[in-house]
Every structure is written in structure tokens, then in C-alpha cells.
TrEMBL record:
Sequence similarity: Belongs to the LysR transcriptional regulatory family.
UniProt keyword DNA-binding, yes or no: yes
Species of origin: Methylobacterium bullatum
Gene (name only): hdfR_3
Any one GO MF annotation of this record: DNA-binding transcription factor activity
Biological process annotations from GO: DNA-templated transcription
Gene3D superfamilies, alphabetized: 3.40.190.290, Winged helix-like DNA-binding domain superfamily/Winged helix DNA-binding domain
Sorted UniProt keywords: DNA-binding, Transcription, Transcription regulation
HTH lysR-type domain span: 2-59
Pfam families per the UniProt record, alphabetical: HTH_1, LysR_substrate
Protein name: HTH-type transcriptional regulator HdfR
Length: 309
């Protein structure tokens, strides 16, 4: 008889392509993932995945098993959400995913207050630059700065984040003043990678300083902050981080960088689950209470609003 857990491990490995990546998602060891795959292949008497230099790739039989396993997974998750939604107790695990800087500087400090009011709710905070699947229960709540590509989500704008252009005084002395009319030649840029949540701000920076050279790309906002603070170049940073870093100076610019929305995401089947609803409310109130830091005086922002479901 097939073991559903074996199928679950097979799906993770086929999606992520490596034992280490699948093990990280499943919170187990690499040997456990490999053992589960061997168990499933032995039960079905067929090879499901081929190991290649690019990672594990499904065979023809593996593709067929994956399609059917994903169908079973969808039904199982729908059943779980339906049953979980009937739970009236404020206890249990709530997984929250967001960008690294938001996790460390905005959400993590706020959760002490949540735990004092609801000690039976446990938060699993997952800083991740990529968008985790709420439908597949990789997370219950997501806090992001751009619209999601996933379906069946409730999305609400709960705030905004202002950005500025930063560098150290020593860097400016070494490289010279910023001449935006000439594209800032001889300057270095620190930008975000293409799949990051700050693509809009990076595009603004490369356009403003079109003759500068990109010397560092990263998916980590914290890495960009520290690189700039150590004289690595110009970086477009969230003002709540850049303004608080004593080594950085905010540059005067002819056009302010675009701000970013703070979006709160939850799967439509989970939004009324009491413990998840409680955490959603807490995150909303916490972000809105920090408006003076996220949108300092003089930063343009619109009134907090819903952006749809």
C-alpha cells in the first residue's frame, strides 16, 4: 500500500530538485528524503527520479505519479483547511513568511506582545526572499511588498515603506559628488536581484545613475544595508533602516525613489481560522503603529486601504 508521506517527500524532491532543498522544506535530514524516495520507488517498482548535474528530474513514470500526487495533495490540503477553519481555539502553530529585514526589524520584535496575550499561539517566522505557497501550506500568512502571483489569496494593503538613496560620507569623498544629469559616472551601485521584492527601487537607482557600475547584487536587504554602510557604494534602502544606520547618509535626489506597499496575504480558506485571524490582526496593528518609522515626515504615502481579494 502506498504511504502518503512517501508521496509528500517525492513531491518536495521533484519540485526543489535536490535532497538538501527538499530536506530544508520538510524539516528533516537529507538521508530521510532519500530513504522515502527509495521506499516509494520500491513500492511502485519503477524509477521516478533521475539524478542529473542540474538536480533530480522526473522520469516519464515520475511525471505521471507527480500529477496524481499533486491532485491528492490539493484535496488533502483543502480538507485540512476546512477542518482547521472550524477550530475555535486560539492555540496552535501559525507560519508567517516575509522578507529578512521585515522579519528582523518589524515583525519579530512585535510578537512578544502577541505571546503575552495569546500564550498558546506559536509563531514560525520564515524569512525568505521567494514567495512561499500559501495554498500548499508552506506558510499561513505572507507579508510582502509586491502583488502575489498565487491564486485564491486575500490581499490587503496595511501600510507603505519609503525608500531613500544612501552612501557613507567617506564613499562620497572618495568618489565625488553625485551628478545625476550625467548619470553619476565613477560611482558604484548596490542593487537587488531581479526576482527580489525591491525590483522597482533597483530600477529607479540604475536609471538615475545610468553611468554607474553595479558592483553588488543581492536578494537580501540587510546585505545591501551593510555593504553600503561599509563604503561599498550607493544603495536604495528602506528609510526605516537607512536612517537608523549611523554610517549612512541619505543623498539629495531630484526625484524620490518609489515607495513600496506592505501587503498582508492569506489563503481565502484560512482567513477565518481564529488563530490565523488573530495573527493577521496583530500584524496589521503592529505595522500601522510603525507608520512614523516606515513613512517618515515628508515621505509621500496614500491612506491605508484594501487592494482587493
Amino acid at each position: 500500500m502506498l504511504d502518503w508521506d512517501d508521496l509528500r517527500f517525492f513531491l518536495a524532491l521533484s519540485r526543489h530538485g535536490s535532497l538538501s532543498a527538499a530536506a530544508k522544506v520538510l524539516h528533516v535530514s537529507q538521508s530521510t528524503v532519500g530513504r522515502r524516495l527509495n521506499s516509494l520507488e520500491a513500492t511502485l517498482a519503477v524509477r521516478l527520479l533521475n539524478r542529473t548535474p542540474e538536480g533530480y528530474v522526473p522520469t516519464l513514470a515520475g511525471e505521471e505519479v507527480r500529477r496524481k500526487a499533486e491532485s491528492l495533495e490539493t484535496e488533502a490540503l483543502a480538507l485540512e483547511r476546512d477542518v482547521t477553519g472550524r477550530d475555535s481555539h486560539l492555540r496552535g502553530l501559525v507560519r508567517v513568511t516575509c522578507a529578512e529585514t521585515m522579519a528582523a526589524h518589524l515583525l519579530a520584535p512585535s510578537f512578544a506582545g502577541l505571546h503575552s496575550r495569546h500564550p498558546d499561539i506559536m509563531i514560525e517566522l520564515i524569512p525568505n526572499p521567494r514567495e512561499l505557497s500559501l495554498a500548499m501550506r508552506e506558510a499561513d500568512i505572507s507579508v510582502r511588498m509586491r502583488q502575489p502571483e498565487q491564486n485564491d489569496l486575500v490581499v490587503r494593503r496595511i501600510g507603505g515603506i519609503a525608500f531613500g538613496l544612501y552612501a557613507t560620507s567617506d564613499y562620497i569623498k572618495e568618489r565625488g559628488d553625485l551628478n545625476f544629469d550625467d548619470g553619476c559616472p565613477d560611482h558604484h551601485l548596490i542593487t537587488q536581484m531581479e526576482d527580489s521584492q525591491e525590483m522597482t527601487q533597483s530600477a529607479w537607482l540604475t536609471e538615475m545613475a545610468s553611468r554607474s557600475r553595479v558592483v553588488l547584487q543581492t536578494s537580501s536587504h540587510e546585505a545591501a544595508v551593510l555593504a553600503a554602510a561599509n563604503g561599498g557604494g550607493l544603495a536604495c534602502l528602506a528609510r526605516f533602516r537607512g536612517d537608523e544606520e549611523p554610517r549612512l547618509v541619505r543623498m539629495d535626489v531630484p526625484t524620490e525613489p518609489p515607495s513600496a506597499d506592505v501587503l498582508l496575504l492569506v489563503h481565502k480558506d484560512n482567513r477565518d481560522t481564529p488563530r490565523i485571524r488573530t495573527v493577521l490582526t496583530h500584524i496589521t496593528e503592529s505595522i500601522q503603529a510603525l507608520e512614523h518609522l516606515l513613512q517618515p515626515p515628508g515621505a509621500n504615502d496614500e491612506e491605508v486601504r484594501d487592494v482587493g481579494t
